[in-house]
Amino acid sequence: MQITAAVLRAPGAPLNLEAIDLDEPRDDEVVVRIVSSGICHTDLSAMAGGVRSRYPIVLGHEGAGIVERVGAGVRSLVPGDHVVLSFDYCGVCDRCRAGAPCYCREFTLRNFSGSRPDGSSALSRGGERVFGHYFGQSSFATYALARETNAIKVRRDVPLEALGPLGCGVQTGAGAVLNTFRARPGSALAVFGTGSVGLSAVIAGVLAGCTVIVGVDILPERLEVARALGATHVFDGRDPDLVEKIIATTGRGVDFAFDTTGVALEAAARSLDELGVLGLVGGVRGGRLDLPFETLRRGRSIRTIIEGDSVPSQFIPTLVDLWAQGRFPFDRLVTYYSFDQINEAARDSEHGRAIKPVLRFA
């Protein structure tokens, strides 16, 4: 079938809306009509050439839509189902079987290779190969091909256009607090970087019953949003007394520090109480961790986090339920754009004008 997709033909180039061909689904695949797609920082990195890709490629990995067709072997989905698309995983390796699909042995192959695991692509244009299958979906398109395992069925009585960000950024921030840290009532949390991932962690801290939730950023408007969403304290990340001020919020330091910036590692580590955990997502400046050993004495630890340590088929429907109850207001992070505004949306995200841009498809 013919679809319209935002095609990236070279790193740093603008995305072009092009008519391309999408193959019919294989036995374990589904065709999804995209209703909305979030733009994530990983997409921006790939657009700039920071994530190794092959070109031309269709990006996008926070899709939400409606199942149009299913492969012969699909059993859990039928046409008309509402789904949120998340990352792909094999489902059969030791890590997947242990309930840790974020660390699937084939995670890189299935999410970043630009093709199916067998090297094929379902996308083409006039005989030209177009790479895709980005995070098992490539949702910057009117239709996407996903697998049964990473198309997560959700309830139909909520606005589907709002749900795309749950597939990656929001589940990463919320999962860090709820799944990785398992924050308990009365605990103290500091979040460094209050973009969509960090603010999702702030909301999750409220859900978890954290009595101290610190937001740290260099943008005053982001700190205002953090406070409105439940942060008990907010600080400018450039404050020379930042660590001392965070420690003063509890008198001992925080139980959990979550860094989404890659540049605040030492401040985050120094903010920890004994036995505290520093969680990291994304990369770090310079590609190296450089921390004084003293910051990790007395039981302090560092944990890298992928996709919020979530099992999407369980975690995403839970987040949808919490949102429907008014307890997880991640929609307050969203700014909507039409599909043909995709380059504007990407620029607004890169320059901090939009916390979570979401594309709406007519």
Concise summary:
The chain has 362 residues and is an alpha/beta fold.
Provide an overview of this structure.
- This protein is α/β, with parallel strands linked by helices and 362 residues long.
- Helix content is 25%, strand content 27%.
- The protein has ten helices and 18 strands.
- Strands 3, 5, 6, 9, 10, 17 and 18 form a seven-stranded mixed beta sheet that branches.
- α5 links the parallel β11 and β12.
- The longest helix is centred in the middle third of the chain and has 13 residues.
- The mean pLDDT is 96.
Give the number of helices: 10
> What's the multimeric state?
single chain
SS content category: alpha/beta
Task: Please tell me the overall pLDDT.
Answer: 96
Q: Give the biggest sheet.
A: 7 strands, mixed
* Count of DSSP strands: 18
> Secondary-structure element order, as H and E?
EEEHEEEHHEEEEHEHEHEHEHEEHEHE
Helicity range of the residues? 10-25%
Helix-strand layout with pairing:
Blueprint: E1 2-8, E2 16-22, E3 29-38, H1 41-48, E4 57-58, E5 63-70, E6 82-85, H2 94-97, H3 107-112, E7 123-125, E8 128-130, E9 143-147, E10 151-153, H4 169-180, E11 188-192, H5 196-208, E12 212-217, H6 220-228, E13 233-236, H7 242-250, E14 254-259, H8 265-270, E15 272-280, E16 301-304, H9 312-324, E17 334-338, H10 342-350, E18 356-360
Helix pairs in contact: 4-5
Considering the chains and any ligands shown, give keywords for the structure.
single chain, 362 residues, alpha/beta, 7-stranded mixed β-sheet, 25% helix, 27% strand
